[in-house]
Amino acid sequence: MDEKTRTGLSKFLSLVLRHEPETIGIELDDQGWVEIESLLGQARAHGKDLSRATLDEVVETSPKRRFAISDDGTKIRASQGHSVDVQLGYQPTTPPERLFHGTVASSLDSIKAAGLTKMARHHVHLSPDLQTARAVGARRGKPVVLQVAAGRMHRAGHSFFLSANGVWLTDCVPPQYIDFPEG
Fold this sequence. Notes:
about 180 residues; alpha+beta; ADP-ribosylation fold; 2 domains; 11 strands; about 20% strand; globular
């Protein structure tokens, strides 16, 4: 499968597993899982040529590991980023001292005023390293990377969760825990 096809299928899976499962008539359980056979059947019924082998390839080759397959191999879900109501079941975890958030310059005034907010998602997403944060910010333009004092936040009572694909999640990041770049 070529990269363009793989990317298109990944975007389709993100849509139906994170935001609009009703688009193809599937229903996610409370933890965001759906039976793979149901997903494949409904995808085909809605014009998406998606086989189990193709699905497995998209999941296995996703550089961001956006999707997880259950241990028994029968269900799939998005690892994080949902706008639909799901409880992913991640346990609170002690974060590293520093985490990172990629954004663009046009968002800085809002972030300085209100901090990082989850907006339409369940959590604020934080990266474990500069490179990942830079890549996230670059999706919307020239990236600006913010450093988050995650250890200090955690000691102040904020909860952090680590998703299956290595993304750190928290409810919000108040501005006093963010180091903004100069200039």
